[in-house]
Design brief:
Elements: E1 2-7, H1 15-24, E2 28-35, E3 54-58, E4 61-64, H2 68-79, E5 86-93, H3 105-115, E6 120-125, H4 134-150, E7 157-162, E8 173-175, E9 181-182, E10 187-191, E11 197-201, E12 207-208, H5 215-220, E13 224-228, H6 236-245
Parallel strand pairs: 1-2, 1-5, 2-4, 5-6, 6-7, 8-13
Antiparallel strand pairs: 3-4, 7-13, 9-12, 10-11
Helix pairs in contact: 1-4, 2-3
Length: 254
């Protein structure tokens, strides 16, 4: 059987990671390595300025006092006897769609697996409300089994979002693009009991641009959204435009 590394950003005690690990057990040898507490919105952060502590909860379950990216790096390079064939991150309690993938610790953990040459999948339940992780766990097992049969290249990073509806109501799977969120009132300013200002990053619920091919639209219509993600960030059109402008250094600049 293959080795599967399971991680998340909600912390090792989160219900979602338990459901995911159980769903993966029929498919391979599962090792859980995850943050010891919630690390949502940590993106691809690495812990470089202090030592990391790892606690072994059982033979195949470990927690780390760091980020999701730390967990994947430690799992692959220090604690797993064999290099995993797959990294699966989740099940996140909350959506990870559109622009938000750049902030997501769930997606960052999967992308770190891809950076290490391991095909990886991030799975999220698209609600912040009361969660039933049974349907997304079944989705995860079904998708992973299907993908393993077809073969996964090392460059694969898939971002999966599951609508918060019963299994029987899920309409199918759609391969999507990342949607675009519209943010309003992102910063909330308040005053503490001593009269000093403090700030929350938040505000009112964001909305989405209308796009039939987006992950948000697929989930809204009752489909599982599967978005392949690439990490080639170079803007090749801008390369051509900048070269055409003949950029040079201004020797008169002081």
């Amino acid at each position: 059987m293959i080795d599967i590394l399971v991680t998340n950003d909600d912390g090792i005690h989160a219900e979602g990671i338990r459901a995911l690990a159980k769903a993966m057990e029929p498919l391979g040898n599962v090792t859980i390595m995850a943050p010891d507490r919630e690390q949502s919105a940590t993106s691809h952060a690495l812990t470089l300025h202090r030592p990391l502590r790892v606690r072994r909860i059982s033979e195949r379950e470990l927690s780390v006092d760091g980020t999701p990216t730390d967990a994947v790096l430690l799992g692959v390079h220090a604690f797993l006897k064999e290099r995993p064939a797959l990294v699966v991150s989740g099940i996140n309690h909350g959506p990870n769609m559109g622009n938000d993938v750049l902030y997501s610790g769930t997606v960052a953990a999967a992308s770190e697996g891809t950076f290490l040459g391991i095909p990886s999948i991030a799975i999220s339940l698209a609600t912040w409300g009361p969660a039933d992780f049974g349907p997304p766990a079944r989705v995860a097992r079904s998708l992973v089994r299907n993908l393993l049969r077809r073969g996964l290249p090392a460059t694969t990073c898939l971002n999966v979002n599951v609508p918060p509806i019963p299994w029987e109501e899920i309409r199918g799977v759609r391969v999507t693009r990342l949607g675009k969120r519209i943010y309003r009132d992102v910063i909330v300013e308040k005053t503490d009991p001593r009269g000093k200002l403090y700030y929350w990053i938040g505000g009112e619920e964001p909305t989405w641009e209308n796009d039939d091919s987006s992950d948000f639209t697929a989930v809204e219509r009752g489909y599982v959204s599967v978005t392949p993600i690439t990490f080639e960030l170079t803007d090749y059109k801008e390369i051509v435009d900048l070269e055409a402008k003949g950029l040079s250094l201004d020797e008169s600049a002081t």
